[in-house]
């Protein structure tokens, strides 16, 4: 039974890229019946015969209507043991090129190679929307028209939602650098979609086009490739990429490290994706931790041992009255106490490292240690969040039939523009905890994580005061600096507003939201970080709220006008 790779299915795009077994060919319908491995239902393979609609002029020159009426070539896409060939039954075809003008191999009906052209990459400028779309099709069959003009044919069964493709291509299209020595020289000069930076390999994931096809590859390879930054260049500027981040000494605490932006990162951008190196239900699971640690390469082990150890107790196991110390472990575990001193130290150090650097992962119900994300410090005014790999990417991959996103991967996402050289921070505290005044926040960090917070919001009391510009309790004028009780009161009222937004509680109407914002704007200065956060929460790119068709843009505009109104009236600094 032959195995083939599904491609170009429009009605069931998620099946694209899956391997199926051919069952039989239904002559009358011109379709294959195929069998998917596992319990999936049977589906039809896409129709492979050409029809007249698939002809289209390459250069938008529509002078050859007569040719359009000609019957196009017939081919079958046959994949045998991942070896894919185009079987061509129309010998009139002269050249087969991909969307970038690069040649592909053509086989005749008997499987004999007709012609292989080893031409150079022919770069083509993308100028119009339709041209971008045209390039997104995997193959264009060029045929010399009698008059010597070139026409192109494309399989309409591979039509994609054009808007989506244009959008995707515009945003993220990159070209593989020619002349750089790398593992995939055959991709030189080709275009791909830039995926997220993979911190675990220090390489970018470059995906085939939105439907899982490299422009020219018809050899069955539809998987993304991993390429180092200099191996890719920006299609628009022609400049090589640089890694988006670097780990450096933390300017605030000398012995600590931090993650810095190497380039300016945009709001909503997936800065990187990281994979867990160690997973365990929690840090007390010594055997699990040690087993995984021992299986690592020496360099990986070294990297893990370099991570911050945090306090000399396990914060995640703290009880109401005490933290979990080495002594606690010795008395709780006879196994542990019987080990020699140096082994005990090694295990204890590992447990502390894991405890200090791991994140809980709700879907897998485990604690996971991500080596690069472990370098991200906490800030009470974070500029990034941890999240799942970008839903759009996930969708693109599923859509194209590539490996679904590794569900254990975590993404670091910028929630505001982060200038080059700036530290990237996330909040270890919950949104609610961030609404607390400084003493409470710091106490929580000390209790839960064992460190005294040195973030800019906690350290810079004056800056924090400027942000805390409130109206007085009587509602008359601005108090300028504001005091803690005042902050507590207003922040808690504002907290309701944020909670509603962030927890996706259904609001009866956008007006309700605006009314809350108006109240909040009366109590908080427009430059207050909470208000800025509120605006960001409504930002559809950063926090898309599924299933809610509230007009986000509209609401943001209204919020903005409310804020601007207050700004103008009070002479506060602008929130923009
Ligand atoms: C997950 S690690 C972060 C990276 C760490 N700085 C390093 O050198 O690997 C957590 C540790 O970093 C330090 N840390 C993170 N955020 C901090 C903050 N806002 N203030 C003080 N220390 C912080 C604490 O020592 C904490 O235990």
From TrEMBL:
CDD domains: SET_SMYD. It holds the Pfam family SET. Residues 243-429 form the SET domain. PANTHER family: EG:BACR7C10.4 PROTEIN (PTHR12197:SF251), HISTONE-LYSINE N-METHYLTRANSFERASE SMYD (PTHR12197). This is SET domain-containing protein. It comes from Durusdinium trenchii.
């Amino acid at each position: 039974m032959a195995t083939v790779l599904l491609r170009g299915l429009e009605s069931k795009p998620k099946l694209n890229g899956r391997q199926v077994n051919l069952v039989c060919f239904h002559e009358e319908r011109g379709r294959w019946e195929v069998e998917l491995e596992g319990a999936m239902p049977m589906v039809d393979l896409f129709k492979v015969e050409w029809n007249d609609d698939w002809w289209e002029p390459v250069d938008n020159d529509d002078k050859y209507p007569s040719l359009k009426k000609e019957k196009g070539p017939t081919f079958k896409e046959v994949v045998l043991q991942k070896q894919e060939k185009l079987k061509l039954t129309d010998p009139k075809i002269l050249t087969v090129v991909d969307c970038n003008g690069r040649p592909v191999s053509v086989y005749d009906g008997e499987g004999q190679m007709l012609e292989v052209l080893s031409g150079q990459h022919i770069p083509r400028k993308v100028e119009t929307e339709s041209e971008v779309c045209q390039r997104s099709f995997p193959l264009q069959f060029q045929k010399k028209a009698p008059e010597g003009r070139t026409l192109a044919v494309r399989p309409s069964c591979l039509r994609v939602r054009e808007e989506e493709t244009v959008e995707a291509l515009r945003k993220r299209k990159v070209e593989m650098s020619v002349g750089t020595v790398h593992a995939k020289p055959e991709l030189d000069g080709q275009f791909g979609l830039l995926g997220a930076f993979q911190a675990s390999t220090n390489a970018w994931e470059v995906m085939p086009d939105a439907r899982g096809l490299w422009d020219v590859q018809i050899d069955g390879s539809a998987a993304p490739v991993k390429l180092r930054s200099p191996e890719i260049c920006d299609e628009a500027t022609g400049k090589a990429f640089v890694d988006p981040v670097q780990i450096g000494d933390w300017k605030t605490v000398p012995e600590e490290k931090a993650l810095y932006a190497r380039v300016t990162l945009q709001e909503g951008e997936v800065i990187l994706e990281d994979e867990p190196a160690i997973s365990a239900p929690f840090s007390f699971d010594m055997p699990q931790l040690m087993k995984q640690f021992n299986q690592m390469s020496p360099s990986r082990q070294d990297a893990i041992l370099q991570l911050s150890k945090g306090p000399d107790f396990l914060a995640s196991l703290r009880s109401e009255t005490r933290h979990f110390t080495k002594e606690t472990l010795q008395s709780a575990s006879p196994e542990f106490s019987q080990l020699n001193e140096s082994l005990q130290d090694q295990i204890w150090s590992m447990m502390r490292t894991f405890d200090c650097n791991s994140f809980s992962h709700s879907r897998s119900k485990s604690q996971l240690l991500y080596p690069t994300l472990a370098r991200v410090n906490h800030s009470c005014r974070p500029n990034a969040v941890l999240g799942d790999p970008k839903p759009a990417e996930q969708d693109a991959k599923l859509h194209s039939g590539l490996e679904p996103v590794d569900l254990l991967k975590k993404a670091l996402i910028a929630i505001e523009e982060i200038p080059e050289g700036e530290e990237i921070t996330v909040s270890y505290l919950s949104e609610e905890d961030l609404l607390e005044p400084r003493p409470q926040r710091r106490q929580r960090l000390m209790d839960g994580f064992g460190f005294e917070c040195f973030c800019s919001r906690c350290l810079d009391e004056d800056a924090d005061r400027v942000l805390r510009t409130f109206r007085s309790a009587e509602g008359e004028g601005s108090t300028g600096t504001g005091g803690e009780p005042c902050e507590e009161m207003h922040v808690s009222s504002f907290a309701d507003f944020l909670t509603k937004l962030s927890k996706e509680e259904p609001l009866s109407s956008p007006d309700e939201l605006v009314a809350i914002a108006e109240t909040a704007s009366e109590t908080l200065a427009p430059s207050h970080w909470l208000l800025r956060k509120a605006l960001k929460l409504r930002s559809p790119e950063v926090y898309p709220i599924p299933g809610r068709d509230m007009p986000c843009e509209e609401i943001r505009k209204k919020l903005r006008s409310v804020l601007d109104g207050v700004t103008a009236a009070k002479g506060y600094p602008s929130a923009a």
